[in-house]
Amino acid sequence: RLSYLLEALEKLIRNKEVGIDEVCIHVFGEILPEDLELIEKLKLQNLVVEHDRIPYQKVLQYMKGADILYLTQGYDHRHCIPYKLIDYLSVNKPIFSLTSKDSATYKVMKEINCGEVAEMKNPDSVYESLKKLIKNKNYTFEGTEKYSWNSITENYIKLLEE
Known about the structure:
Layout: H1 2-14, E1 25-28, H2 33-41, E2 48-51, H3 56-65, E3 69-72, H4 83-89, E4 95-99, H5 104-112, E5 115-119, H6 123-135, H7 149-161
Helix pairs in contact: 1-2, 1-6
């Protein structure tokens, strides 16, 4: 699923809307072979850094240092909120999410104004949303506390006690 991001990013670079030296993509875990081929085809090898899997606390440090966090969610999971979204919200960094407009992730992100959402299978949507995200870093994150791990735990306990 890195391909959606890579194609939009290559177009932004080609159109001189972002400098090649302004971007670095950190991938934790193995990059899919088809994504590796695309990275080479688009000549983006110098922008993508593949890391081995690392402990959660170390990933959290990378997330806190990131300018933008990337989240994909398949159409078959659109009715749930991924744990990764909750983790991303905890560091208050803009999120670029590829999901459907009828997904729970889309609703949460629009509710708290924490980044941009694009339709995964729509290249124009991905390109325009990524461009908007890069140019606009003024997201409010208003209401993020509602989605903190503490809040989720408290609500779950209340539900069990009913």
